[in-house]
Amino acid sequence: MASGFPGRELGYGVRLPIPARSEAGNGGLLKRSLTEMDRLQLQQQMQLQHTFFLRSVKQRTLFNSPASPHFSPPLPPADLSSGSSSSLISAKLTQDGLARSREQSSAPQVAASGAESRPSAAVRDRLQELERRLLLDEEEGEGDVSTSGSAVTTAEWSEAMQQLITPPTSAKNPLSASPTNSSSTTVSSSASCSPSSSSVASSSRQMLLETAAAIADGNLETATANLVVLKRVANPRGDAEQRLTAVMVDALISRLKLPQAGSSSLPIAALCSAEHFAATQMLYELSPCFKLGLITANLAILEATKEQPMIHILDFDVGQGGQYAVLLHALAERHHLRPAAGAPSLRITAVSDPTSPFTNNNSGGNLRAVGNRLEKLAERAGLAVRFNVVHLRAAELDASALRCEPGEALVVNLAFALSRVPDESVSPTNPRDEILRRVRALRPRVVALVEQEINTSTAAFAARFGEACAHYGALLESLDATVARDSVQRARVEAGLARRALNSVANEGADRVERCEVFGKWRARMGMAGFDSVPLGPAVIEPVKARLASIRSNRGFTMRDEAGGHGLGFGWKGRVLTVASSWR
User: Fold this and answer.
1) DSSP assignment letter at 119
2) Residues 154-209: pLDDT tens digits?
3) Phi, psi angles (nearest 5°) of residue 361
4) Which structural domain range is residue 154 located in?
5) How distant, in Å, are the alpha carbons of 42, 111, 185, 423 from that of 456?
6) Residues 544 and 438 in one domain
7) Which residues pair with 575 in a beta bridge?
8) pTM for the full model?
9) What does residue 412 show for φ and ψ, rounded to 5 degrees?
10) What count of other Cβ atoms lies within 10 Å of the Cβ of residue 98?
């Protein structure tokens, strides 16, 4: 047996000296056991770690590192309208970062065996390099901390030490380290540890949800700090997740009524403006999910009115008439295939509620202009069409006021219309259900219903915000597959979506004018009003499938049967965005 133990290297470039021989025992062999020797080595290792943590490091790159949760003196609250938000980020995240560093330095997790406590060669080399740079940095003198780019930052040192104390898999994405307490996090998603784009997207979405939860809990300090961080990763011209972050940050700031340069809380009038009206019509044309919903409604109308010589359509949101341009084309084709049956006569009645805020921008001359275009289009197609406008409240709807005539096949088109009518959560008169009851009394041959699949009506704020993030995030991503990003129309459509998201997130009560519901809730409403669902058969489903297959870059677009064939859901990568159904 050897007369001593060789010096053991701890991984810091330091070797323990060979222990002295015992004073007892005639200069005999070393009396200490292997366990005692390991304990001595571990104590010296912990002392070295503590020494490294106590070293004073000048934070020269702190203000250049985005969302850096490291040490900084307390600062007064920053205005979100300013371009630089680093000071508030540092101030808000200082205490949490300091507490974590102290906890790690005072109670490092030491493995049971000496072999397990040794750092890897890569970590040892990293620490030696940091030590060398630290020594060089101390000799440079007191410079401007905001201009030096070569100094070792607290982030670098903490990252290296963290690898010694905890496994690498425990590292977290900086964006997910928000100061929101556990009780505020009502909606969660997993964040990746890698700095990939998907990791950043997951982290920003998670922080958005945590911010909404903080607002719901009244934790405005946390919400404000998170919004500052989120504004740094938001980009209205970036990828879908960056654009969603920009939209939702603006909506949250509006809800908090915080100042923001070039923006303010948008009133109801923004959703009722001529610009928003035009953007909505562009959305119906550019988004396959909305367009396929309207095509499904047209096919349901055609199927229910075949062999009918007179057709009367009641429409509660004609828009610019794009849906009827397609319907007239289909009627003309059917007539050419069966000329002996004769061309049907068609009446379209646009129903306009004089009390609705949406009426002002699409009433009178505007609706009349739409009717003139449709009549000319029908004439070129060899059809006879009459277009009328009636101004009626929900309680005034009856056959006489709507000028219904005997022998007509009555059709009611409710495509994206009911969600803009107040429900029981807004008005005790509940115009939404009143319209359905009045329509049922008319005994129409078919009612075509198309709506967005999202609950922005009665859901609580935090849940409503989570719904909006998922819905508008999928919608923005789907537009990337069909429309050029630099398109003027695309910009107008996304501006319209931002206005919608802001209204659904920032506003409450009667100020939230677009109140969408999920298909299950619409089914319940229709059933209570006395309607029965009409299954969508092959005559409807097969043409829609063919149209979906013809869309360029359609790999992400999906079509799904709802309620056993009683509805068709259209979405992007599994997220249903619109649902079309038929009722009688």
Assistant:
1) P
2) 454 444 444 433 433 333 444 544 444 433 333 333 333 334 555 666 789 999 99
3) -95, 0
4) 34-172
5) 59, 52, 20, 12
6) yes
7) 572
8) 0.68
9) -120, 125
10) 15
